UniProtKB/TrEMBL annotation, chain A:
The lineage of its organism: Bacteria, Bacillati, Actinomycetota, Actinomycetes, Pseudonocardiales. Keywords: FAD, Flavoprotein, Oxidoreductase. It comes from Pseudonocardia halophobica. Pfam families: CO_deh_flav_C, FAD_binding_5. This is Carbon-monoxide dehydrogenase medium subunit. The keyword Nuclease does not apply. SUPFAM superfamilies: CO dehydrogenase flavoprotein C-terminal domain-like, FAD-binding/transporter-associated domain-like.
Automatic annotation (TrEMBL), chain B:
Residues 159-182 are annotated as: Disordered. Pathway: Alkaloid degradation; nicotine degradation. It comes from the Bacteria. Signal peptide: none annotated. PANTHER family: OXIDOREDUCTASE WITH IRON-SULFUR SUBUNIT (PTHR44379:SF5). GO terms for molecular function: 2 iron, 2 sulfur cluster binding; metal ion binding; oxidoreductase activity. Transmembrane segments: none annotated. Keywords: 2Fe-2S, Iron, Iron-sulfur, Metal-binding, Oxidoreductase. Residues 1-77 form the 2Fe-2S ferredoxin-type domain. This is Carbon-monoxide dehydrogenase small subunit.
Length: 275, 182, 759
């Protein structure tokens, strides 16, 4: 199967990409690694008139410490996140989550910015960035704005990103190499998560918990976090993990099953993160 | 739109539609038919080739995305042009009977080449997880795993025996990737 | 030293591992130069009438040469399985009605493949949706009819038992256990999808290149559909990328491709996408079974009853026949005094069913092996012990079962013992007890299966031609049709053994109906015991022929001559250094070639026992296959490399059905598993390495003692794994879970059992 025909543009700078986005508006789609976009284009579920390939925009490819945060260029590939020494030391959750995305071939192509822009509620990275309370940096001809991930997603595959905006950077706090865990539950190794739970320990010692595939957007296990803050045990707190979630029904699981599963995975993740 | 791609060490150039998939560029424009297409959803890995040395699924890469880059297919491995198994991976696939109908084989071989390149010190578990993006319907993977271990210079009997009694989960985990994992 | 039984690496591999195999879609054959690409427009609805089809816009799209609909197609709708209801005809392009998602309604022919997909999108079909029937029990009610003219959805009466068993069938049993189980629908999913290309020669003959498991019968089927003489049709099989039963025979698309080629006067080629394949290619299993088993508390099984409903899909095909094997093999390896079975076959608004690895026998094995575990559970007996107590004893062979099969040879209890010993069955049970006592989250399950199956059961006759050439090379022609099974190597070994000519000099050819007009192909694990034996016999005959010819040359009597296998020469017995003549030299004088047809007359019955160990995370329901010990006895092993490879692949597919795979349709008949992202084929990461245990009990049906092994692994592993997962949670009150044993199903079963026990 092959995509519907389109015009192809390959800018080499962010400014050039933004100019093209401004020119083509809703008719254009940004192509990064292409591993979310091309499959839906091949199945003809998407048929953009213009594809703007930002795969060669070198300025979007970096991982660096920036004050209290790590700044990651939106074009950084999964593979580069997985093997990053900086992230292993400063934010070990992120490479660990990333190495569960897709398969090696996918990780050679897919990018962090692409995963966040796609915003699949079953995706690993949106929930991980949510647990990290990361920030998305958006740029358009109108300027740059920083959106906390907590305010970024508005629904399934949708966010506050405007059509003329490009994700240029993701910023995450330096949470270090310990105090985290990722419990991903799949049928097959490279399937999307039936449910997954990311746990990270903030600078103040608080546990933050991101949930994958428990609603139309990535979610935080707020009730569990609050219970932990009140000094409840891991077991007691984890039992609340499904509060406020609206998990989907599909072949892999009923909503009831997912609500149960998330408590098991949350407990295990919290235990692992506690070391 | 014109693309220039170095394929198996040779410069190639063709005028293609932007939507042309790299897999089709290799098969139709260049006549390199080893690379097969087995699915529509980036699932089976039969189309795996190396782009700048790294395994990718060529059904999910546009030819225009590979413009000015270098692609290696199974036909480009050592000895292949002479019909000889000059590469450790292809030699091991034959020796260990890592193929039956052959359809997944070119992609499996290229995924293995990339895997060994990135991690020469492979265990059975590493190989199984490293090949998660490539489906084979004939072999049950048993002999493919052995072939990759052999190509990586490991003793497949020892590796499989160690894995069998390790108690470590061989298979699709509830991937606990916490620090307690190591 | 004999080459038989040795580990010979495959002669086909160097090409497969360098330039790659050549599948139908890879062909650059000059006869296909300028071929048009066929793109089929397929129904998005499972059941609908067609009001109209507008192809004008498609016809005007770039690159389009022609568009055809059912109104244009004059191939008469065909009954795809002879014993099906005569009204259940399949059109080659739908005309007034579609009956499953994926049914072809129009064909678009374009210069380029990409243009075809664009133009196909422009074909505008006006459908009037009808209620669809997907559930087999619903279909049996005949409220929604697929073929109103048939008046029923029932496909055939061929598997109905002649009479009901009496009320006293289980009367002498202390314990009777009964329940319904599902042997779910699965997809064969060979990595190469279906493909066919066709061209017509100036002589009026048509050549079709296609992907199938048996060229000759596919030729006859296509000829029948097209109303042609089979002599005017030539099928050529390039390399075939897996079949697993789903490529047995011809697909209607093959005939359509030939018809289209004639219509436009140009060669055409068709290669389906995976999405088309997951609805268009025949699927397997799809049986609803009610099993009832009765016996005494001491473990004596006395009576067994199996009631089957089989799903034919929308257009009845080979799947209609398979309950015959299910019924025949119903009692499995056991000597059960009373066995009764029946099967209904029903049409539904789904993809047609046919053979999938095992084809009717795995369904029988799954049923009896679940029944044995249910019975063991009920009387509190170890499942391995129960099996050994009831299996047919070695001295009872040949043994005619209550299912009507004549088992040739077997040592079933020994197979169970050897597999259990290899697995340290007692040790596993002890570990299981420890975990149960501790209440671990990870519980251990141990599953045992004892199986027997039929191989070579479909077609008993096969032929081979062996020819020695003056240059010392050999050509073997075979009516079998390898698609991964390594016949090029195995058949060369058989010929080499008799001819004294090395394997490297022997070329095996197959799958060209002009070259090899008769043959039955590769299916039902038949190849070695039919085609392989034919090669052996042909080679033996060729040596005899050579001796007769050599008698003149060497001026000796035939009785004094023998073949020196070290040199491939005919020599005088006991006269070293005397005159000799090589087979090659004899071939230089006169064609040295033998055609041999071998009629096995009967099938063989390979058997075995598998022990599976699984871990089940009772908190999440996740089951993981940790190890499997597989004893598969198929008689003498010709090439352990290939023999083990067949078992590995079989074991994986059995595990896959138990754990992961299921073709799912919603109540409207929409497929929910139509891509590889949704359909659960396992990767290497979901499977362990396999432990193989060997035993070789020859058959008496052929001189070599060979039985078949292609499907054995699947038949043995699936029930072993199924039983193991249930065993892991049986102490929690779970007695059965239907396959596939996905986390949600296992958890739900535990959850329901706990709710039940809390009452």
């Amino acid at each position: 199967m092959i995509p519907v025909g389109f015009d192809y543009q390959r800018p080499e700078s962010v400014d050039a990409a933004l100019a093209l986005l401004a020119e083509h508006g809703d008719d254009a789609t940004v192509l990064a690694g292409g591993h979310s976009l091309l499959p839906v284009m091949k199945l003809r579920l998407a048929a953009p008139e213009v594809v703007i390939d930002i795969g060669r925009v070198a300025e979007l490819n970096y991982i660096r410490v920036d004050g209290d945060e790590i700044a990651i260029g939106a074009g950084t590939r999964y593979r580069d996140i997985v093997i990053s020494d900086v992230l292993a030391k400063e934010c070990a959750l992120l490479p660990a989550v990333t190495r569960t995305v897709g398969d090696p071939q996918v990780r050679h192509r897919g990018t962090l910015g692409g995963a966040l822009a796609h915003g699949d509620p079953a995706g690993d990275l949106p929930a991980a960035i949510l647990a990290l309370e990361g920030t998305i940096v958006l740029r358009s001809p109108r300027g740059e704005r920083k959106v906390p991930i907590t305010e970024f997603y508005t629904g399934v595959f949708s966010s506050v990103k405007e059509p003329d905006e490009l994700i240029v950077e993701i910023r995450v706090p330096r949470t270090g190499s310990t105090g985290w865990a990722y419990e991903k539950f799949t049928r097959r190794s490279n399937d999307w998560a039936i449910v997954a739970v990311a746990v990270v320990t903030a600078a103040d010692g608080a546990r933050r918990i991101g949930l994958v595939n428990m609603g139309s957007t990535p979610l935080r296990a707020k009730a569990t976090e609050a219970a932990l803050a009140e000094g409840k045990s891991i077991e007691e707190a984890a039992a609340l993990a499904a509060e406020g979630t609206e998990p989907p029904a599909d072949n892999a699981g009923t909503p009831e099953y997912r609500r149960h599963l998330v408590t098991v995975l949350t407990r295990r993740a919290l235990q692992t993160a506690a070391g | 739109m014109k693309v220039e791609i170095t394929v198996n060490g040779e410069h190639t150039s063709h005028d293609v539609e932007p939507r042309t998939l790299l897999a089709h560029y290799l098969r139709e424009n260049l006549g390199l038919k080893a690379t097969n297409i087995g699915c529509d959803t980036t699932s089976c890995g039969a189309c795996t080739v190396l782009v700048d040395g790294e395994a990718v699924k060529s059904c999910t890469v546009l030819a225009v995305q590979a413009d000015q880059q270098s692609v290696t297919t199974m036909e480009g491995l050592e000895g292949a042009a002479q019909g000889e198994l000059g590469h450790p991976v292809t030699r091991a696939f034959r020796q260990e009977h890592g193929l039956q109908c052959g359809f997944c084989t070119p992609g499996m071989v290229m995924a293995a080449v990339s895997l060994i390149d990135e991690n020469p010190d492979l265990t059975e578990k590493d190989v199984r997880e490293g090949l998660e993006g490539n489906l084979c319907r004939c072999t049950g993977y048993h002999n493919i795993v052995r072939a990759v271990l052999v190509a990586a210079g490991k003793d497949p009997d020892a590796a499989q025996a160690a894995e069998a009694v390790s108690g470590e989960r061989t298979t699709a985990p509830g991937f606990s990737t916490g620090e307690g994992d190591k | 030293m004999s080459i038989l039984g040795t580990r010979v690496v495959r002669t086909e591999d160097p090409v497969f591992l360098t330039r790659g195999a050549t599948y139908t879609d890879d062909l650059t054959d000059e006869r296909l130069t300028g071929a048009l690409h066929v793109t089929l427009v397929r129904s998005p609805l499972a059941h609908a009438t067609i009001n109209s089809i507008d192809v004008e816009e498609a016809r005007n799209a770039p690159g389009v040469v022609a568009v055809f609909t059912g109104a244009d197609c004059d191939i008469a709708p065909a009954l795809l399985f002879p014993a099906a209801n005569k009204a259940m005809l399949r059109p080659f392009l739908a005309t007034d009605r579609v009956r499953y998602v994926g049914e072809a309604v129009a064909a678009v022919l374009t210069e380029e493949a990409y243009q075809g997909e664009d133009a196909a999108d422009l074909v505008d079909v006006d459908y009037e949706p009808l209620d669809a029937v997907v559930d087999m029990k619903e279909a049996l009610k005949d409220e929604v009819l697929l073929f109103p003219e048939a008046g029923t959805n029932s496909v055939t009466a061929m598997h109905l038992a002649k009479e009901e068993p009496g009320d006293d069938f289980f009367a002498d049993c202390e314990v009777v256990v009964s329940r319904e189980i599902v042997n779910q629908r699965v997809a064969a999913a060979p990595l190469e999808t279906r493909a066919a290309s066709a061209y017509w020669g100036e002589d009026g003959r048509c050549t079709i290149f296609c992907s199938t498991q048996n060229a000759q019968s596919a030729r006859d089927e296509v000829a029948g559909w097209l109303g042609m003489d089979a002599k005017d049709l030539r099928l050529i099989l390039p390399d075939v990328g897996g079949g697993f039963g789903a490529k047995i025979g011809a697909d209607p698309e093959f005939a359509l491709v030939a018809w289209l080629s004639k219509k436009v006067g140009r060669p055409v080629r068709w290669n389906e996408s995976r999405s088309e394949n997951m609805t268009g290619m025949v699927q397997g299993r799809a049986q609803l079974q009610t099993i009832t088993i009765g016996g005494d508390r001491d473990g004596t099984v006395k009576a067994y009853r199996l009631d089957v409903v089989a799903d034919a899909g929308a257009y009845p095909r080979l799947g209609v026949a398979l309950p015959m094997f299910t019924r025949m093999m119903a009692p499995g390896t056991y000597d059960i005094p009373k066995v009764w079975s029946t099967a209904q076959v029903v049409a539904t608004n789904t993809t047609s069913t046919a053979a999938y690895r095992g084809a009717g026998r795995p369904e029988a094995t799954q049923a009896i092996e679940r029944a044995m575990d249910l019975f063991a559970d009920e009387i509190g007996m170890d499942p391995a012990e129960l099996r050994k107590k009831n299996v047919i004893k070695p001295e009872q062979f040949p043994f005619t079962t209550k299912g009507g099969a004549e088992y040739d040879s077997g040592e079933y209890a020994k197979a169970i013992d050897l597999a259990c010993q290899a697995a340290d069955y007692e040790g596993l049970r002890a570990e299981q007890a420890r975990r149960r006592e501790r209440g671990d989250a990870l519980q251990l399950g141990i599953g045992v299966s004892s199986y027997v199956e039929i191989t070579g059961g479909g077609a008993f006759v096969e032929n081979a031609t062996v020819q020695v050439h003056p240059d010392g090379t050999v050509t073997v022609l075979t009516g079998t049709s390898p698609h991964g099974q390594g016949h090029a190597t195995a058949w060369a070994m058989l010929a080499s053994e008799e001819l004294g000519i090395p394997v490297e000099k022997i070329t095996v050819k197959h799958g060209d109906t002009d070259l090899i007009p008769t043959g039955a192909g590769t299916m039902g694990s038949r190849s070695l015991q039919t085609g392989g034996v034919a090669v052996h016999n042909a080679a033996v005959e060729l040596v005899e022929l050579a001796k007769q010819r050599a008698a003149d040359v060497l001026e000796a009597s035939v009785g004094d001559l023998e073949l020196d296998k070290a040199t491939g020469s005919i020599v005088v017995k006991g006269a070293p250094g005397a005159k000799s003549v090589s087979l090659a030299d004899l071939a230089g004088t006169e064609e040295l070639k033998v055609f041999h047809e071998w009629d096995a007359k009967k099938p063989t019955f390979p058997f075995g026992a598998h022990v599976a160990v699984v871990e089940v995370d009772v908190e999440s329901g996740k089951a993981t296959v940790e190890r499997i010990w597989a004893l598969d006895d198929a008689g003498p092993i010709l090439n352990p490399l290939i023999f083990d490879g067949q078992r590995h692949g079989g074991i994986a597919q059995g595990i896959a059905q138990a754990m992961l795979e299921e073709v799912v349709f919603d109540s409207e008949g929409q497929p929910l598993t139509a891509t590889f992202a949704d359909y659960g084929i396992p990767s290497a990461a979901e499977l362990p390495s396999f432990d193989l245990v060997n035993m070789e009990t020859p058959t008496t049906i052929n001189s070599m003692g060979f039985k078949g092994v292609g499907e054995a692994g699947t038949i043995g592993s699936c029930p072993a794994v199924h039983n193991a997962v249930i065993d892991a949670v049986s102490h929690l009150g779970v007695s059965h879970i239907d396959m596939p044993l996905t986390p949600v199903r296992v958890w739900t079963a535990i959850h329901e059992a706990q709710k039940e026990s809390a009452k």
